[in-house]
């Protein structure tokens, strides 16, 4: 596993000081080559030995070894200009597929199978599932809502906070709110997550693998990798990771009970007879 991916994957098991070091490295990876262990310690207000121990805990001989590994891993990802040739579209396409595969592998590493299985079981047992997607996540939430309804799960897609708040007001224990938000920083969504938990419902958040308020208000926080220095590529990696995670959950729901597959097939056949439009 690449060093930055390893840091993201192990961050949740780190101590408070280790998380500070991890977050600084993740946010400033491009500049890390200019920092000695002493300078990094001074920037964070910690001891130099804490930086050394952090590096060794990740499996490196010391900080210089970690810094070199990060720089080496980032070298091919700095967005070097590719000469314009007839093969350029293929080169770009190949890089995107590779980065998506890496992001999905990293997402699998930071979300244990037991967490995905637990969320699937909550959804399968819930009286109602409320889904909300912020910004571009709305389309993903809507598509997953449709898939759940095909399985016979009572799922409701919400497109604004007022709509979601009205649904939460009538929820009961065991109902599930699945909130998808790339940054997880919307105060209104966090407030609604608190309201859902007050009603003994379960809140599942799907966000980027960063520190964000929504994670803190969720019963189960699912995390999405997909970091890239290119602003036009990073959202694509994130969306691919979300889709892959929800696809895994859908398969678990399908295979968890035989009657769901029968319901799915019946609904698909019924939909074929409906007029398009």
From TrEMBL:
Residues 1-77 form the HTH rpiR-type domain. Residues 119-255 form the SIS domain. Keywords: DNA-binding, Transcription, Transcription regulation. It holds the Pfam family SIS. InterPro entries: Homeodomain-like_sf (IPR009057), HTH_RpiR (IPR000281), RpiR-like (IPR047640), RpiR-like_SIS (IPR035472), SIS_dom (IPR001347), SIS_dom_sf (IPR046348), WH-like_DNA-bd_sf (IPR036388). PANTHER family: GLUCOKINASE (PTHR30514), HTH-TYPE TRANSCRIPTIONAL REGULATOR MURR (PTHR30514:SF17). This is MurR/RpiR family transcriptional regulator. It comes from Noviluteimonas lactosilytica.
């Amino acid at each position: 596993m690449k060093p930055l991916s390893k840091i993201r994957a192990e961050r949740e098991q780190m101590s408070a000081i280790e998380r500070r070091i991890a977050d600084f490295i993740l946010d400033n990876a491009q500049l890390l080559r200019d920092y000695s262990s002493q300078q990094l310690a001074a920037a964070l207000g910690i001891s130099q030995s804490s930086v050394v121990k952090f590096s060794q805990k990740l499996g490196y001989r010391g900080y210089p070894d970690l810094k070199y590994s990060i720089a080496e891993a980032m070298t091919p990802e700095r967005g070097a200009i590719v000469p314009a040739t007839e093969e350029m579209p293929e080169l770009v396409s190949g890089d995107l597929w590779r980065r998506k595969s890496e992001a999905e592998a990293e997402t699998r590493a930071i979300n244990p199978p037991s967490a995905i299985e637990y969320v699937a079981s909550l959804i399968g047992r819930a009286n109602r599932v409320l889904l909300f997607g912020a910004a571009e996540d709305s389309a993903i939430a809507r598509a997953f809502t449709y898939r759940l309804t095909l399985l016979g799960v009572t799922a409701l897609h919400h497109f604004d906070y007022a709509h979601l708040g009205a649904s939460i007001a009538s929820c009961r224990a065991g109902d599930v709110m699945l909130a998808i938000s790339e940054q997880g920083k919307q105060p209104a969504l966090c407030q609604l997550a608190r309201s859902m938990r007050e009603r003994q419902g379960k809140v599942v958040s799907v966000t980027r693998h960063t520190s964000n308020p929504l994670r803190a208000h969720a019963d189960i926080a699912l995390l999405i990798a997909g970091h890239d220095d290119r602003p036009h590529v990073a959202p694509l990696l994130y969306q691919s990771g979300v889709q892959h995670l929800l696809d895994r959950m859908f398969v678990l729901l399908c295979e968890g009970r035989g009657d769901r597959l029968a319901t799915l097939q019946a609904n698909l056949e019924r939909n074929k007879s409906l007029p398009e439009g």
